[in-house]
Amino acid sequence: MKGAEALLKALEREGVEVIFGHPGGAIMPTYDALYDSPIRHILVRHEQGGVHAATAYARASGKVGVVMATSGPGALNLVTGLADAMMDSTPVVAITGNVPRALIGTDAFQEADVTGVTMPITKHNYLVQDVNEIPRVVKEAFHIAATGRPGPVLIDIPKDVQLEEFTGSFDVVLDLPGYKPTLMGHPKQIERALDALEKAERPILMVGGGAQHAHAELLAFAEKTGLPVITTLMGLGAFPGNHPLWLGMPGMHGTVAANRAIHHADVILAIGLRFDDRVTGKVSRFAPHAHTIIHVDIDPAEIGKVVRTHIPIVGDSRLVLKELLKGAKPLRLAAWWRELEEWRTRYPLRFKPKPHLQSQEVIRAFHEATGGHAIVTTGVGQHQMFAAQFFPVTRPRSFLTSGGLGTMGVGLPFAIGAKIARPEELVLDFDGDGSFQMTLQELATVVKYKLDVKIVILNNGYLGMVRQWQDLFHAKRYSEVYLADSNPDFARLAEAYGIRGIKVERKEDLRKGVEAVLNADGPVVAEFKVYHEEGVFPMIPAGGAAEDMIIEHPAEREEVEA
Amino acid sequence: MRHVISVLVQDHPRVLNRITGLFARRGFNLESLAVGTTHIPGLSRICLVVSGDDHTLEQVEKQLNRLIEVLKVTDHAEPHVERELCLVKVHVAGVEERLAVKDIQEAFRARVVDVAQRSLILELTGDSKKVDSFIEALRPYGILEVMRTGAVAMSRGERTLKVREKKEAV
Ligand SMILES: Cc1cc2nc3c(=O)[nH]c(=O)nc-3n(C[C@H](O)[C@H](O)[C@H](O)COP(=O)(O)OP(=O)(O)OC[C@H]3O[C@@H](n4cnc5c(N)ncnc54)[C@H](O)[C@@H]3O)c2cc1C
Ligand SMILES: Cc1ncc(C[n+]2csc(CCOP(=O)(O)OP(=O)(O)O)c2C)c(N)n1
Ligand SMILES: [Mg+2]
């Protein structure tokens, strides 16, 4: 058996069913072995598409996503996607070929120092020097990627190692003395947390991406205590978006109710989130009335990193919630809820209707037509925030977006990965005209594997999010954000790939358009030509605080005092 | 505040890159670094001198612990021994200067490790402060070059950097 076969066998033993990838010289031995392997391979048109698809596959399924690429240019095309998976704590294993061992360091053809380049954007990485190490490295890589705080792991394998005769064993025991994630929360701290919640007058429960797998325990705990729940962008779906206890998303484009609740809260229980600056705004003004912050995170480094934590709980959110649930009591929060209810009803997410077709109403129409029952993916920009606001998902692992890195172009490859992970689900990509054009080559992948994904392009003819900042903070100097003069006809572009294209331009055609998308047999690219001057609101300007929240465009300004 | 941190690591390729890369990326201030193997095959020990406030130091420790190959991190807040090794080449023009330098050498318990016509190499071990003063004392005579290692440190008493201790990590 050659190293390449050993590699695939090791992957099989990890339960890998799908690899997203793109071949090339230095990984050819492994592609040759793949020819006889039961593992399914999805050929993407650009390695970036592959790593994003693997990321979405992981997030939608809870398994590890796998991507494969050749040395040099192939591996370097993974960089953005690895950084994206790292930022959003997603388990991905990337396998890259490299030049033969003897050529490493000689500037050989298609050589790049891939382990060096990816060191800061992977949880860990390996350069395999010995063919018999393959089983151990693969086992460790999957373990590291999937456990603790999940993240990407890269395995770089020189071509001659793939070709060498394997004489080792697959029975390897994990030996990672420096890696022992803490899973169980400290009982004393859990007791203190419950105590603080019981004494609180204005407690809130904030949850993030690290609680997606803990949705059942979270729901039970929230319902038992009656705590108001706030979910970050990465936490969307961890708690049902149609639940009466849900206040929405916090932060820059969060709801008034969520941000005010944080502002006035005396006790904050934060689970599986990292107090990103899009959530906190200016940290010194974040949650000024909170005398107790309880932070549950599996990564000790996140605790105390951004906000002062009074009750740290290092552990897995699901296991900690289980423990919390045991001691949970219904809390007396009637007065607090009256306030919350007032903010919620007074400031719902809304937008001023305009004569033009608007992004928000398009997304809302899809939400109504599907009952929110879909896996949503997005690009990055205004449309992403509108999707977060107007498509409140109700199930975990169903809102797949690039939060930490904010990578334009993930929408389509995310849809591909999600559809492959959960083929029975409706997969809707709400994309921007700018974002979509960053990875649109993956339409070919949609065709190749007959993936029934619905791509909804909210075409505002602009890099809308940047335009919004220019509008608000750069005196309307719209520098280099105009796309409409050179955007393709998206419907015809889709048709060139053999994908059904739909174009909706008028408000009155909205319903019909939505139905056409949802009723279409197979993939669709639907372009909705939307109003270009729309802004995402509410908005807390970067570095601001809840008190600085802008609820509507200054032209129609109505600021709230927090 | 200045902190001396000892890190026990698996001596895999690039482990030092991971550590220095981490410091660069997170903007931690690394004043000196020393690395060496230990009595246990496969394990190396790194000593870092870091400056920063309490919050930064907490992050330094936690971020180091996130590295898979890091087995143990200790901030030597407790009584510890700290040493640097320093070589100084000084210019000595005449007998008088030679004698003066010799006085300094004796006062600091340094050693002469190379003697040439117009220069001497002195070797000193001591903590950073002592090395600093040594260099200052020699400065008037014309220092030709200085090479000092990063500090190495060890806790006093029975306390050791234990390998088997379970670390909290991700
Ligand atoms: C244009 C744009 C605008 C944005 N605006 C907003 C906004 O208004 N509001 C908003 O919320 N976000 C916004 N974001 C997203 C934001 O940048 C962050 O990505 C997001 O807030 C992070 O969410 P999170 O803290 O839940 O974290 P994640 O990044 O998902 O972090 C997960 C945390 O959980 C921990 N964890 C992982 N696994 C476990 C486990 N098993 N048990 C316990 N803990 C675990 C991790 O250690 C980590 O600390 C925006 C992004 C973009 C691109
Ligand atoms: C790869 C990448 N480049 C640049 C940016 C900066 N950026 C953030 S949003 C945005 C505009 C996105 O435009 P579009 O996809 O059309 O979405 P819209 O805001 O118009 O809805 C840009 C350029 C980014 N997030 N990612
Ligand atoms: Mg746009």
TrEMBL record, chain A:
Q: In which pathway does it act?
A: Amino-acid biosynthesis; L-valine biosynthesis; L-valine from pyruvate: step 1/4; Amino-acid biosynthesis; L-isoleucine biosynthesis; L-isoleucine from 2-oxobutanoate: step 1/4
Q: So what EC number does this one have?
A: 2.2.1.6
This entry's comment on the bound cofactor is: Binds 1 Mg(2+) ion per subunit.
Which EC class heads this enzyme's classification? transferase
Q: Which InterPro entries match?
A: Acetolactate_synth_lsu (IPR012846), AHAS_TPP (IPR039368), DHS-like_NAD/FAD-binding_dom (IPR029035), THDP-binding (IPR029061), Thiamin_PyroP_enz_cen_dom (IPR012000), Thiamin_PyroP_enz_TPP-bd_dom (IPR012001), TPP-bd_CS (IPR000399), TPP_enz (IPR045229)
Would I find Hydrolase among this entry's keywords? Answer: no
Keywords annotated in UniProt: Amino-acid biosynthesis, Branched-chain amino acid biosynthesis, Magnesium, Metal-binding, Thiamine pyrophosphate, Transferase
Segments forming a coiled coil: none
Q: Where is the Thiamine pyrophosphate enzyme central domain?
A: 190-324
Keyword Protein biosynthesis part of the UniProt annotation: no
Signal peptide residues on this chain, from the entry's feature table? none
Q: Where's the Thiamine pyrophosphate enzyme N-terminal TPP-binding domain?
A: 1-114
Location of the Thiamine pyrophosphate enzyme TPP-binding domain: 379-527
Give the cofactors, semicolon-separated: Mg(2+); thiamine diphosphate
Question: What GO molecular function terms would the record report?
Answer: acetolactate synthase activity
Catalytic activity as recorded in UniProt: 2 pyruvate + H(+) = (2S)-2-acetolactate + CO2
What family does this chain come from, according to its entry? Belongs to the TPP enzyme family.
Q: What is the protein's given name?
A: Acetolactate synthase
| Originating species | Thermus composti
UniProtKB/TrEMBL annotation, chain B:
Q: List the GO molecular function terms.
A: acetolactate synthase activity
Q: SUPFAM superfamilies, alphabetically?
A: ACT-like (SSF55021)
Protein name (record): Acetolactate synthase small subunit
Q: In which pathway does it act?
A: Amino-acid biosynthesis; L-valine biosynthesis; L-valine from pyruvate: step 1/4; Amino-acid biosynthesis; L-isoleucine biosynthesis; L-isoleucine from 2-oxobutanoate: step 1/4
Subunit structure, interactors included? Dimer of large and small chains.
Alphabetical keyword list: Amino-acid biosynthesis, Branched-chain amino acid biosynthesis, Transferase
Q: Does the keyword Plastid apply?
A: no
What family, per the record? Answer: Belongs to the acetolactate synthase small subunit family.
Which Pfam family, just one, is annotated for this protein?
ACT_AHAS_ss
The UniProt entry, under PANTHER family, shows:
ACETOLACTATE SYNTHASE SMALL SUBUNIT, ACETOLACTATE SYNTHASE SMALL SUBUNIT 1, CHLOROPLASTIC
Identify the residues that the record assigns to the ACT domain, covering every copy: 4-78
> What does the record give as the function of this protein?
Catalyzes the conversion of 2 pyruvate molecules into acetolactate in the first common step of the biosynthetic pathway of the branched-amino acids such as leucine, isoleucine, and valine.
User: Where exactly are the transmembrane stretches of this chain?
Assistant: none
Q: Kindly indicate whether the keyword Ribonucleoprotein belongs to this entry.
A: no
Q: Which gene encodes it?
A: ilvN
Q: Which reaction does it catalyse?
A: 2 pyruvate + H(+) = (2S)-2-acetolactate + CO2
Enzyme Commission identifier(s)? 2.2.1.6
Domain of life, source organism: Bacteria
CDD domains from the UniProt entry: ACT_AHAS
Q: What EC class is this?
A: transferase
